[in-house]
Amino acid sequence: MRAGVPPRPPPQGGTLPPSIGRDPPDLPEGPGPSSANPTPRRFQKMPPSLPASINIREPRWDQSTFQGRAKHFFMVTDPRNLLLSGATLEEARRVVEDYRAGTVPPGLTEDQLWRAKYIYDSAFHPDTGEKMLLVGRMSAQVPMNMTITGCMLTFYRTTPAVLFWQWVNQSFNAVVNYTNRSGDAPITPSQLGTAYVSATTGAVVTALGLKSLTKHLPAIIGRYVPFAAVAAANCINIPLMRQRELKLGIPVTDENGNRLGESTAAAQKAIFQVVVSRIGMAAPAMAIPPVIMNMLEKRAFLKRYPYLNAPLQVGLVGLCLVFATPLCCALFPQKSSMAVSSLEPDVQDQIRKKDPWLETVYFNKGL
């Protein structure tokens, strides 16, 4: 209907025709007066608010399956997380902590929430909440280990090279083990020093001892000496770095995260699982490249371009670690479990007083 013209009254006793009394049909946009009156903002449809019931204390994927754990650790060990700025990390921390406290930022989507949660997990310790050392984070595992392991596999023939690279590797492992320890109990400088010196000594002695035993064996055998040294060092370094947990225990909780006490039995199980994961993590990177490099060295290519030896080793190791790191971290659930009956008697009594029917407790195994 035209502006300023009143609608025609209906006939007496009749009804309004269908086209009268209704809103006019939408007109095409143009320079006319209709284009100058957009829909008021208060009538525009707003996105639905994100519910506060999403459990971001747990990973996004089902951790009772290997596939779910693998997806989780592919996110946690993503090396691109190292490039995030301090402001981005603090913003992720703010979003996660606000959401846990029941405050949902306006406009936050579920994907944005999970992205913030995984940024937070990659940089902050799950028990203490403190920001972890950059080189000790799991997202630094691939770039750091590919460099160190590649050099260990390349420079293994001389004693000084063995000493230097085993020392570098154990220094890095000490930082990683401290950064990813389980629980919130502090580690004293003397405990750190003992673990570091013991692991480094064990790795060097193993490497040099095996090196002397393999002098008269095929060259391919000698290439596996660094792996044996790393496996031995992990068996020494991790328990020593986490010796306080073995003495005093790690926190155990119920399914809802309520702390029930500290258990040394849980600490033993956690450390065993981490040792197995670390050795498994190193195995492909230290077992596959030596075979390939041994074949390449027999051909004319590496004889003509010997300077490509180290870059090729590092590249092959990196390719293995991209998959081995998250997959071996996923061998055991991060939130591991244990039957109450398997705990120490005094811890069992302590738990029975709080919940007589509880059968299973949970703990963070560390990484």
TrEMBL record:
Protein topology in the membrane? Multi-pass membrane protein
List localization entries.
Mitochondrion membrane
| Gene name as annotated | SFXN3
UniProt feature, compositional bias: Pro residues: 1-12
The entry's function note states: Mitochondrial serine transporter that mediates transport of serine into mitochondria, an important step of the one-carbon metabolism pathway. Mitochondrial serine is converted to glycine and formate, which then exits to the cytosol where it is used to generate the charged folates that serve as one-carbon donors.
Which BP terms from GO are recorded?
serine import into mitochondrion
What top-level branch of life does the organism fall under? Answer: Eukaryota
Catalyzes what?
L-serine(in) = L-serine(out)
Location of the region described as Disordered in the Swiss-Prot/TrEMBL record: 1-58
Any matching Pfam family = SFXNs
Q: Which family, according to the similarity comment?
A: Belongs to the sideroflexin family.
Q: Provide GO CC annotations from the record.
A: mitochondrial inner membrane
Q: What is this protein called?
A: Sidoreflexin
Q: Which GO terms describe its molecular function?
A: monoatomic ion transmembrane transporter activity
| Location, primary (coarse class) | mitochondrion
Q: Which residues cross the membrane?
A: 270-292, 312-332
- Supply the alphabetized keyword list: Amino-acid transport, Membrane, Mitochondrion, Transmembrane, Transmembrane helix, Transport
